[in-house]
Amino acid sequence: QVQLVESGGGLVQTGGSLRLSCVASGRTFSRYDMGWYRQASGKEREFVAIMRWSGTYYADSVKGRFTISRDNAKNTVYLQMNNLLPEDTGVYYCAASDRPGGPLEYWGQGTQVTVSS
């Protein structure tokens, strides 16, 4: 069982930046696939970014603005979000798979990001 705790959300103006963090439990974090998803009010949850053994991938809507990274010594994955837009508003969720290439089975509780225009 992997537990995930996100932090770093908040209110920011258009063009601003935020860095989200997600701390994971477990002694084999370096082998986890880690990703970020988001859900805007009234919409379905959507993919944002993911780090897998096969590579790092981003949604087209965030390419060039968001960067996913990880610190295995801290069991933490980050999402650096720059040049934020109102359409980036939503609850951001951290997700993990403890089987490389497997489905993302573990989810955090989410952190709210609000971008004002």
What does this entry look like structurally?
- The chain has no helices and eleven strands.
- The chain is an all-beta fold and 117 residues long.
- The strands form two sheets. Strands 2, 4, 5, 6, 9, 10 and 11 form a seven-stranded mixed beta sheet that branches.
- It is globular, with a radius of gyration of 13 Å.
- The model has no long low-confidence stretch (mean pLDDT 96).
Summarize the structure.
With 117 residues, the chain is mainly β. The protein has strands spanning 4-7, 10-13, 18-24, 33-39, 46-52, 55-58, 66-71, 76-81, 90-97, 106-107, 111-116. The protein is globular and about 40 Å long.
Give short descriptive properties of this protein:
seven-stranded mixed sheet; four-stranded antiparallel sheet; globular
Lay out the secondary structure.
Layout: E1 4-7, E2 10-13, E3 18-24, E4 33-39, E5 46-52, E6 55-58, E7 66-71, E8 76-81, E9 90-97, E10 106-107, E11 111-116
Parallel strand pairs: 2-11
Antiparallel strand pairs: 1-3, 3-8, 4-5, 4-9, 5-6, 7-8, 9-10, 9-11
